[in-house]
Write the structure tokens for this entry.
Amino acid sequence: MKALTANRLSDGDVVFWSAGQWVERFADAQLYADDDVAGPEAEAAGKAQSTVVIDVYLIDLIESEGFWAPLSYRERIRALGPTNHLHHGKQAEGGAMVDALQHAHGAARSTGRVNLIKRTK
Amino acid sequence: MYQYDTLDREMVADRAAEFRGQVARRLSGELTEDQFKPLRLMNGLYLQLHAYMLRVAIPYGALNPTQLRKLAWIGQTYDKGYGHFTTRQNLQFHWIKLRDTPDILDHLASVDMHAIQTSGNCIRNVTADPYAGATADEVDDPRVWAEVLRQWSSFHPEFSFLPRKFKFAITASPKDRTAARVHDVGLVMRRGRDGVLGFEVIVGGGMGRTPYVGSTIREFLPVDQLLSYVEAILRVYNRHGRRDNKYKARIKILVAALGAEEFTRQVDAEWAKIGEGANLPDAEVARIRAAFAQTVFESLPAQSEAFEAARAATPGLARFARNNLKPHKQPGYTIVEISLKGSGETPGDASSEQMEVVADLGERYGQSDIRVTHEQNLVLPHVKLDDVPAVWAALKDAGIATPNINLVSDIIACPGLDYCALANARAISIAQNIAEKFRDQDRAEKVGELKIKISGCINACGHHHVGHIGILGVDKKGEEFYQLTLGGSGAEDASLGAMLGPALPYDKVAGAVDTLVEVYLRERQGDERFLDTFRRTGVAAFKEAVYADAH
Amino acid sequence: MPTLIELKDGLAHAATDAFTYVADDQDMPGGDVIVSFGRFQAEGESLLSEGRRLGVRLEAGDAVEALAYDLPRLALVALDFPKFGDGRSFSNARLLRERFGFKGQVRAVGDVLREQAGFMVRVGFDAFVPADGASSNEWQAATRRYRHVFQRSADGRTPTFLERLS
């Protein structure tokens, strides 16, 4: 499964796409099956909203405690907040989804972002 | 301290106004993100994992209390009540909103501060010895030349779109507290045979994917030739540094590709064409120098009875004095280092309340002079020994009296994967786990000087290559793993660390460091530091111990 | 057609381009032309002998020194910005003015953005073909953002350290 994430331009906050709008809680994010073309379509649409969001990309998800959670540790930190201040960021809200995110296991880097080294020329 | 005059203030105000316009044009869509990104980077504004990060410039790590109070206030008003001091003597706020930054820059400008060129492919903050003006072992005050370079490099019309970032460090002491030899240009001040002041010019040091200790391209550059010479260096770099690959674009790559000799030849050829007209008039150097000569010291006895009595009566103060006080050139004074590496704290972080305390202490006891070190600690460079008990008590109340300067728990750590979009792994919790192993202060003192430096990724903002123990976060099979190196040093004996062995998983790192320390304590001779024992014995015993344990 | 902005007496004006840029594989039209350095080396003499005004366009990686001998006969040097972040042409412009004393037009072409107008004017550009649709008024405003400058450069503006002495 996948979800679409970005950072809001005006404040840098992590947001997720959910049925026509950008939401702040990962729990509210719209989910796409891996082969669902709606995912890439939403990504393209998001990239066109250049005065609303920046850095729009799909992330991979895994199951955790009955929820879908970001596969990569990096994306879990984006969805939760920093691990050195548990009262900072979205994790401060608490709840079952936050617990599920905190207990999920998976890759330390988002698999949707492997092409980090960009050659220019 | 350098005081802004009207011209300096108008520069910063004009920059803030320019950025306000650029932000507005970005929010309206008139500027694309591709066009805007370099502009916001040149004002120190990054997009990180959770929010924007603003890197405020603290030129050569020097602050006055008014400025520190303003930073405290900005932290409370626009962030989450704290700031993070960095390995380039700057301050970062990690929870900033783009739409607030024009106002934040205006607030900074009101106390002669800014975020100019703290990121981007331009000349960055020029760092200098945090003990400048206080230490007896300097040949000159390096802040004079750091300020000369700050002005020269700010909004430089030819050198604002370099192949990559460019970092200067200046030291005037035989003890290098700036890591000058791993900077793009390190300037080491010396006196020539005839007493003339000059710089040893070291180029092409750096960390990251391809670390280098810099090469000396000029043994002695008279100080009054500084600007013409650095113009030559920058021009050669601007014209010939690689533009095709971001990871091969630093000047260190150019120096390595040409060879130091050919690089030097090109710089010297360019310098000859530039000529002396490019140097700063003596009157301007004198004006800047005069600003730094303002500190007035009282005539005091070398020993303070009050301090000695308090020290004898209070073990905590004695421990603080042993570790955090450094010799001052003026009898009766001392340099006070304030550790931001408290047990359980995030290395380099200070709350707004703690900043206020340091500002007050600086004002009341410290000649209104406060410094930031590149090891993420603060310094009150001019404190009377008589006043140390009161300073210590206030620091203790504020939770920033940890007596661990240069000890194993005085760890340098980048923000890492908890904050940074570039990171592979966390650095903060690794630092905390290690520090926890050395909570026992007696043990920490027994170990002595041990500089652990942690980077969450190869960009090496934690300077791991020059850690006595360096720790680099890597992504191995999707988990957080850490590559350990031994024997690096950022001081005058600069060296790059050697790999210990295969990367270790997250939960093995603190134990491995513990093991390394045990090996050191077993092997050390005389008063060897960890670094000295490693250099004498090599990696074998350390490697064997760590990887035997891992099985 | 991209707008040409020219700077005269410190004021930016929209201008009609008297020059035609001629690619290496194009037939040579009449009138004033701008050609690549390679084409200049091949045909420069003959073009100049026809009494035209001639401009040479340098790529970012070209060394302006190669033109030094011919500069007195050139009306214009165009310096390319392949991407606005490629700052090599700032050095070429400054050298053209300060080291080689070039008095003709120094024109910025390529990925030229008004956010860099101030820097460009300082290093000696006096003509611009903006890639971001900036008008001459916007360009003018962009060059006026800073009341002071810290360094000496090709524009001759008094740097702060001399302002302070007066």
Q: What stands out?
A: Residues 190 and 198 of chain B are 5 Å apart (CA to CA). Chain B has four domains: 6-109, 134-290, 305-397, 412-550. Chain B has a mean pLDDT of 97.
